[in-house]
Design goal:
about 260 residues, alpha+beta, Trna Endonuclease, Chain: A, domain 1, 2 domains, 5-stranded antiparallel beta sheet, about 30% strand, elongated
């Protein structure tokens, strides 16, 4: 049985050469076309192509760093803008599909919570790959790379339309009266927006007029004097499109 131990490796002197020598540690079929290639943001670590001919920008770190994603995206941006030149410059070495959107691969022993959180919102084919470095009894060194699941961006809650919200009224009289109020306000250039749950907000330009929660058999709105600052919603927080603004110190109420 061969014994191995976990080790740390230096980024440029050890990690990069290990991956260049055996890029399939990262992904099967991956081929390195160059490394430390100059860009307008400095030299990128590894430029590779995957088994389908798609360009892959590989950025390395030997420790978790919040700057990892930002740095990788800067190199990615340069490669995306210059992909035709890259494909032509290295056509004798490998076939690069200049029409395919490049990939971004970040490789590190771990990733910060910040990188994991932001990665969900990046509109790029992105891989976060953790490596584990080891050394055997003969002093031979190697790497094990594993792509991690950083999740997906949460789906924003669906905000029902005003018509959908009005279905909550059980009284047709209240529903008709409320619709007439909306129609009247619409002719006065009042902007009417559905927000969370059964609430509706009313705006005139940048000024909030009121928020209005719908009830089964009645409805009442919470209004503000015209101060040009916004409108009051649930919990004394002003909201527009469901986004809390500042707190209010006064309000009035009207009902139908």
């Amino acid at each position: 049985m061969i014994k191995v131990k976990a080790i740390s490796v230096r980024e440029k002197e050890e990690l990069e050469p290990l991956l260049i020598a055996n890029p399939e540690i990262i992904e099967e079929g991956l081929k390195v076309i160059t490394h430390q290639h100059p860009t307008d943001s400095g030299p990128l670590d590894i430029l590779a192509v995957d088994s389908e001919g798609t360009l892959a920008v590989v950025e390395l770190k030997n420790e978790a760093a919040d700057s990892h994603l930002d740095q990788g995206l800067r190199y990615y941006d340069w490669c995306r803008q210059n992909i035709s030149w890259i494909a032509n410059a290295y056509k004798g070495k490998t076939e690069i599909n200049a029409d395919a959107t490049p990939r971004l691969m970040l490789i590190a022993p771990a990733f910060t919570d910040t990188v994991r959180r932001i990665a969900k919102y990046i509109d790029v084919e992105l891989d976060l790959i953790e490596y584990h470095a080891f050394e055997n009894e003969k002093g031979e060194r190697g790497l094990i790379c594993t792509a991690i699941d950083f999740g997906q961006a949460p789906v924003p809650p669906e905000i029902p339309s005003i018509e959908k919200k009005m279905e909550y009224f059980q009284s047709e009289k209240v529903k008709d009266l409320f619709r007439s109020v909306l129609d009247g306000l619409g002719t006065k250039q009042v902007e009417i927006k559905p927000i969370h749950e059964l609430w509706i907000s009313f705006w005139y330009g940048v000024n909030g007029l009121c928020t209005w929660p719908l009830r089964e058999t009645s409805s009442s709105c919470r209004c503000l004097p015209q101060t040009g600052t916004g409108t009051v919603g649930p919990g004394s927080q002003r909201e527009r499109n469901g986004t809390p603004l500042s707190r209010s110190t006064s309000r009035s109420t009207c009902s139908i």
